[in-house]
Design brief:
single chain, mainly beta, hypothetical protein yedk fold, 8-stranded mixed β-sheet, 5-stranded antiparallel β-sheet, 15 strands, globular
Length: about 220
């Protein structure tokens, strides 16, 4: 599962083939479902563009917000089959999982070496509602997950589906190459570090959240 992640850079630069996407966003250390998040998706007429969409959508079959989709089943589940052509990338430089009992949940941050940017795979959809007879269109997304690499597997049985940089275009472009991408997630080992318990609160924000939590480091690893 992926329920929280970070972008600690003030500016994001993602290279898709020969096209560089630049996003000036400001650092965010505790990105959570229901928030607007930056994504990259195809531009009509060609190329790619950055925008913001809401993380999580409300499916018909449950009252629980849907924030993730298992990459292995998106082609078979009706919820996702209709939006397979609406693929996106979510830039990030870290994501979080938790260990311990609910009363003592301890966040662990996973990052690439040198805190390098990476992109998670997502699917998005557009819905229109009419509160007070005024049409309102919303774009929302889910983050794909996959089986964990050895690093994440110590703590959780799922991890975000990280797309290899050489596959960014394949994931976003029209056609069938996205199926190849689904078979080859980035499983490189990640750095991991327990961070501050204050991150448990979705309202918490700021660079102090990712300071190493020394006591947890000793307890966990």
């Amino acid at each position: 599962m992926c329920a929280r992640y970070s972008i600690t850079k003030e500016e994001i630069r993602i290279l898709i083939g020969e096209i560089e996407i630049i996003i000036a966003i400001g650092a965010r250390y505790n990105i959570a479902p229901t928030q607007l998040v930056p994504i990259i998706f195809p531009r009509k007429g060609g190329g790619f563009q950055a925008t913001e969409m809401t993380w999580g959508w409300q499916p018909q079959f449950t009252s629980q917000l849907l924030i993730n989709a298992q990459a292995e089943s998106i082609e078979s589940k009706p919820t996702f089959k209709n939006v397979l052509h609406q693929r996106c990338l979510l830039p990030a430089d870290g994501f979080y999982e938790w260990t311990g009992e609910r009363a003592e949940r301890r966040p662990v941050r996973f990052t690439k070496p040198d805190d390098a940017l990476f992109c998670m795979a997502g699917l998005w959809r557009e819905t229109t509602t009419q509160p007070e007879d005024v049409p309102v269109t919303t774009r929302s997304l889910v983050v794909l997950t996959t089986t964990p690499n050895k690093t994440v597997g110590k703590i959780h049985n799922r991890m975000p589906f990280i797309v290899k940089p050489e596959h960014y275009r394949w994931w976003l472009d029209e056609g069938e190459l996205f199926r190849t991408v689904l078979n080859f997630p980035d499983r490189d080992e990640l750095n991991h570090c327990p961070v501050q318990p204050a991150l448990n609160n979705v309202r918490s924000e700021g660079p102090e959240l990712i300071r190493p939590y020394v006591k947890a480091q000793q307890d966990l690893f």
